Please model this.
Amino acid sequence: MTGTKVQIVSPPASVLEAHLTETEKFDGTDTRKYSMTLAFSEDQVQPIREAILEAGGGKGRSPLKERDGLFLLKARSTYPVRVVDVANEPIALERITVGAEVRAKLGFASYKSQGGGVTTYLGNIQLLRSVYDAQVTLGDLLDDYDESDLPF
Model:
């Protein structure tokens, strides 16, 4: 099916950039959107590729970019998002920093302007490991992973 809206919960990813407490500014202009850029490894990116294909039918620009062996995806929201920890307890947006490991609810939708493509919407986020939680590994956190446990 093409041209549909698709929602997924991302595989675990590293945060490369986060604008969650205030909207992103670009060249001094406020975009009026919150955003987060995620980095995925080759073995994590397949669900993202499938969602993009389903949303846009493989036509136009893809929001997924490859750089230095990593796959980068920038997602945006016009509304503040909610963040929870591994116990699904609400936490402050400020806990999502560069280097944190997260999962996020992502929405994909096609657009037709300027040659068309697929855009990515940011939903709620689950912090799996902050840069301050060095004693906990991602493997430890995912041992009991069950997608039905997510609050979104």
In short: The first strand starts at residue 6 and ends at 9. Helices lie at 46-56, 138-142. The mean pLDDT is 88.
